Request: fold
Amino acid sequence: MKSGGLYVWWIATVAALGGLLFGYDWVVIGGAKPFYEAHFGLVSPQVQGWAMSCALVGCLVGAMLSGVLSERFGRKPALLAAALVFTISSAGTGMAGSFDGFVVWRMCGGLAIGLASSLSPMYIAEVSPAGMRGRLVCLNELTIVVGILMAQVTNWLIAGHGSGDLLQRNAEVGWRWMFGATAIPAMVFLLGMLFVPESPRWLALRGREDEARRTLERLGGAESAAIVLAEIEESVRGSEHETLLVELKTLAGPRLRGVMLLGVGLAVLQQWCGINVIFNYAQNIFSAAGYGLSDIMFNIVVTGITMLIFTFLAIATVDKHGRRVLMLGGCAGLAVVYVTLGYFFHIHSTGVHMLALVVAALACYAMTLAPVTWVVLSEVFPSRVRGTAMAIATASLWAACFVLTYTFPLLNSSLGTAGTFWVYAAVCILGFLGVKRWLPETKGKTLEEIESFWA
Reply:
């Protein structure tokens, strides 16, 4: 029977498969974009923006439901539900016979993304020892990046290989295989979740202390289990399990209003920093930089490899250097790259240096804002309201992502690519100032010690 550190890594890896599906489903549409648009005859910027962003409506709903489901039924059943929806929706999107059907199935996939994006890092944080929590939650970001790379490689292999006209062939069937391939890892995730334990902190909050103790002992030994269980009991002493309405009032109250606003602000910053438009609108950005369709598909794979490499660096540094330093560095680095990238777009410069700047932005994001935001969100909220608070923060993230994705074609047509990236640079500068002012350092602290800080 697995125990200790290996057991923690095993269950964290299984839970992080939700991140892999999140990454794949989130990015696959970027490579499929020119093909399903040709298949369904999408020509207006508004309709194209809706096709790209409709899944984010499902993400928003899924994130909001994650709090209710995880608090009422537990973290594990909610993750199982996400895996099941992932499996069904990926097959449905690949077989969509009309644009309306495509939109409905994309929303269903978004529902699963919304659930997994909130639940996976929260579950991992609740089963992780304090000294490992940053690395283990970053593991979720690593699987997101692996999912992104899987989507990019799958898109490239499907789109770039075969006989006949590339656009015509992929407009007929290629894009369907791009979406449908998600069903395979989704089933692996579903099976894996059957064999992981429920969150010990959720069990303790429901009065199931014996089950919580057994899980904690497997995670860190009897001595560690006794200490953590005592801290959990102390953190919730004198309060019964709260209803959703009471939890919302608690989060809006003077004690927790600040941390709730901090969580929402960081979630919005991670999206409005602008990096996700590179994934979703890679074709537009690389076309503006002078690349053809075949080179664009290869460049997209390069961006995925970059994300993977620098996410490993984030895992190696987040528990060493801390959350605050990485968040500040990410905001500053992205602002500098965006200003430079915007300048080259402004003078209509083309060539490999444009790809290098995009890669630099992705490297900076992958090592800082991408993983560290999820680490902070998973650990700053008190145990008794963590599910609801995480749902609100994640819903805010997906609402911000919807705005970002939907408005990029409009900003790009009105301000130009240069002006759009300068807008994102301004957001990063504001984010730097906000992080410097309000984000405390949380590395090395137990979840209960972080909770006592807000008190």
Remarks:
- The chain is about 85% helix and 0% strand.
- The radius of gyration is 21 Å.
- The CA atoms of residues 442 and 450 lie 7 Å apart.
- The mean pLDDT is 85.
